[in-house]
Queue: 2 jobs
Job 1
Amino acid sequence: MSAPVLLLSDVTREHRQGDTVVHALRGIDLAVHAGELVAVMGPSGSGKSTLLHIAGGLDTPTSGRVLVEDRDLATLSATQVAAVRRRSVGYVFQDLNLLPSLSAVENVALPLELDGVRGGMARRAARAALDEVGVGALAGRFPDDMSGGQQQRVAIARALVGPRRLLLADEPTGALDSQTGEEVLRVLRARCEAGAAGVLVTHEARHAAWADRVVFLRDGVVVDQSGPALAAESLLPAGGAG
Amino acid sequence: MDTAYAYSVSMSIRHGLLALLERGPRHGYQLRAEFDAATGETWPLNVGQVYSTLDRLERDGLVLQDGDPDADGRIAYRITDVGQAELRGWFGTPVSAKAAPRDELAIKLALAVTTPGVDVLRVVQLQRTATMSGLQELTRLKSRATDAEADLAWSLVLDSLLFRAEAEIRWLDHCEARVARAAARRPQNSVAAPATDQASRR
């Protein structure tokens, strides 16, 4: 199997509050490969948002390693980490995703332009990204003139425009009704099947169920994982004659 | 009543009685009263069910008669090593969503919280992982259904199964939170969680 797009290795995060140390994450190991959507589930305070922030270079671990596309974030300068965030990682949050003064295509092109891609090229890439999530026809619309579901599709397009392959989503369906939320998850799932690596943080089992793997987080520790049902062959002993 | 359901209920009674005998030797009337108390009288037993179940448990070597009948002619039973292994196996195995009625899960948790030495949070997590795998499988089936008219009925049936699985996971979350809260309130000298586990709670 190829190297994971995201690799967390023995990641620990402690917050100090006066004399007490709060262990937000303790010894987390997590690998997410291209083509895979992994859901992280846990109650509030379990550390799932901290995990997402660390995966995206928005927070640094107290110990352990974070590799994004084989680059160890701890060995990079602040400027280099910022570049990894721009070029490799896309975020989708519950709300406040799009700039209201920019059209859909301008919103999606923005990260590329910030990274020095020329305007025309950035817009072409943005239109392609909007087409991929099924809202190409809305390229000229402003966020206020779009439904919540359409805005989240544009946000997913922006998260994955250009060469970016790691998509980090924090409760992306939180403000949407269940039907629209499901459509957003369908798009997220499709983008991962097309080659992105996705991490979805949620407290909703129904949403987590769209993932290939579900990781259960409790008090900063992975307590269990649920994957797809094992193929019949993998239930046989390795190298068995039977 | 379909046979799979009947089988599953009788298996729950078997394991329920074993869980009660894990606390010490008991006779049939005691077992019935304690089973009803542990499960909130949701699934009341009659004493005939208790004794016929005890006979089968004894036949299978899971329990033994404990001494002679008392003054009223009642026979007490105790759990054997084989019975204890069987009980551990039951708590360590998730309920199959296919064959079992959902009641078995409620019975299992009601007895897990009252049986000494059972890691209730582990039982909850095992079940949640199994139920989540089922939910993922249903979601994969659903993602293959298109918006076409013909798929609507099938899609709604899947939704019903999805919501049921989701509800079970929510209920398990709720059980976990309540068990954790109860453990935190328990006095230090009780035989609850080991020290490391207490430190891990926040």
Note: Residues 229-242 of chain A have pLDDT under 50 and may be disordered.
Job 2
Amino acid sequence: MLQDASAPGFHLTPIGHGQILLEPSPSLDVGDPGNLVVAILDRLQGLRAATLFYDLAGLALIDEAYCRWLEGLANACRAIGVRMVCVRMQPTAAFGLAQTQPRMPAFATALDVGLD
Amino acid sequence: MRNAMSKTRRTLLEQTKLQIGRMSALIEARARDVFGANQMMSADEISDFSVEFLELMVALFKTDDPLAHHTAEFKALQGFFGNVAKQILLRGGQMTDFLRYAQFLQKIFIEALEGDESIDGDGVRAILLLLSNVFNELSLVVFESYLEEKERTIYAQQEELRETATPITEIWDGVLTLPIIGTLDSSRTMLIMEALLNRIAADRARAVVMDVTGVRAIDSQVSHHLIQMVRAVQLMGTDAILTGIRPEIARALTNLNIDLGNVTTRASLSDGLKEAFRRMEIHVSTPH
């Protein structure tokens, strides 16, 4: 039986082979990342995750704060042996991020789940 | 003042109604000369134009103040004139021809008053003032139509240029190529980036080979744009492969301290494609 992998702000779905899909909801508050990271890592460990796919399809723009949140989560995932891959980044978000960030962010990206 | 205006418009209204047949014939004859000969307007269109124009002028003279631009009658006349001007311009007509024609239309109204001996000097002045105000406004409408049409043409040309400036080709399933030729300035980089990223999303491209063989010179700004483009592609989760960097460009990049550490580079477009195929585990073999 699957554990309840949802929490305010995100939903986790196991998609097989230790892969988990994280879908953020509009209520996700990246202004308080501490508790959020702990909640996500806790559930990832419970699900014996090896890879976390973070779905960015719903974000037309990614600002610096959101980028920092993604980098922080990717680092935290690395610490517990989970690889985080951001998928389905929108062209507008990539366009904006490429212009505002002086370097590639510290998280992996892929077009979609299974294409990393 | 109000009485003077009332008298002016009444005079114009009466004379127009009295001579509408003659005026219509003159308007049509001149339109045939100006627009009919080169197929800008058909005989039916000329006839309709004449009738509708005179009806709208009569409606305008019936209003309390024919110079008030906010009235439905004035707006209807402006709209009608604007539409006809656009139609003529779209068919390749000249704005100057249409403006001269508008002047002729004004002259028709002035000539219609020639036999009216009841009009004194003040009346003539008031009528001329009213007509010149109305026709000045109509000339402005023609000019606006001309500008709109020119802007539309320029926009269409820019769109065409944009498409030819970003010749993105899907050379294999999931593999895009983008040859960059000429100078990369900020606005062109934006255009290319926007087109490329949308294409990646639409085609679900796994690799993009960007060939800069056609880039003759590079400076700090251009190299910055190039790196931005590569980064945006990578952020989408697509492999970016940069090919065709000429020796002088490579030297310039080094002098500019541009770090290509995160960028896959290959000597030629062909090598770039091989690398893209290798990454996608596509095997291309030649028959022996």
Note: Residues 169-279 of chain B form a domain with the Transcription Regulator spoIIAA fold (CATH 3.30.750.24).
